[in-house]
Amino acid sequence: MHHSDITIIGGGVMGLMTAREFLNAGISVTVLEKIAMSSKLILC
User: Fold this and answer.
1) CA 15 to CA 32: how far, in whole Å?
2) Secondary structure of residue 23 in the 3-state scheme
3) If 0-12 CB within 10 Å is exposed, 13-18 middle and 19+ buried, where does residue 40 land?
4) How far apart are CA 10 and CA 16, in angstroms?
5) Which end of the chain is less crowded, N or C, counting CB atoms within 10 A of the terminal residue's CB?
6) Among 36, 27, 31, which Cα is nearest to 10's?
7) What number of CA atoms fall less than 13 Å from residue 33's CA on the CB side?
């Protein structure tokens, strides 16, 4: 099971920019999006 410090709901521009800022600060992030944009699951 994957554990993250922050979960962001919505993979739009603001959700992804927010996730990037958390990742740059060393915080693990999961982004949830209801519409799949890729056939691969990417965990950061």
Assistant:
1) 9
2) helix
3) exposed
4) 8
5) N
6) 31
7) 15
Cα 8 to Cα 40: distance, rounded to the nearest angstrom: 18
DSSP symbols for the chain: ----SEEEE--SHHHHHHHHHHHHTT--EEEE-SS-S-SS----
Structure tokens at 1: 């099971």
Please name which of 31, 27, 37, 40 lies closest in space to residue 11, comparing C-alpha atoms.
31
Domains in the chain: boundaries:
1-44
Give the Cβ contact number of residue 25 at 10 Å: 10
